[in-house]
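Let's do one together. I've listed all components of the complex below, 227 residues spread over two lines.
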Amino acid sequence: DAKTTQPPSMDCAEGRAANLPCNHSTISGNEYVYWYRQIHSQGPQYIIHGLKNNETNEMASLIITEDRKSSTLILPHATLRDTAVYYCIVWSSGGSNYKLTFGKGTLLTVNP
Amino acid sequence: NAGVMQNPRHLVRRRGQEARLRCSPMKGHSHVYWYRQLPEEGLKFMVYLQKENIIDESGMPKERFSAEFPKEGPSILRIQQVVRGDSAAYFCASSPRTVNTYEQYFGPGTRLTVT
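Okay, and this is what the predicted structure of the assembly comes out as:
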């Protein structure tokens, strides 16, 4: 049972902002939204997470809608090295919460 | 501050041989997780270990697979009598014990090819 829905692929021009959407319409009150990415032939890399407020770090910004049913990961100035599969994950703070469940994600291709 | 280390990065085994995959967690991390990524698929959880304890092995195949995380040394994922279907990328992740956040730091993976 899929907790998140992401488009399979997106393109972005180098230097422009990349906005990656994620739907999580069944998210519950204690569930966080986490984003990871996987560059080809490497392990997944943690990017950012949030509960209900917008978050920003050195890598990206995370915008969560007020109803928390969707979110957008923003890479403000995409570079060629940002080409990767991006995974949106809903994570609960209780129970067997260590089992990260990766779906198919969004393949972001940054073009020169 | 070294990240999660895995070795070997690439491993080729013939059917019926044993494969041993090693994972050294980040310094200060005592929680280790193994995931498997089959070709063209997402990562799937296999097992969660703490030092000398298996906490959850619900994602491990019932036969031929085992994992350990001894008091000293790396975590080992062992696959006995490998078959072609075991060909995959195996990723190890580690985490510290933190409250309210859950970030797992992944290693570069071991790509197992069974011929």
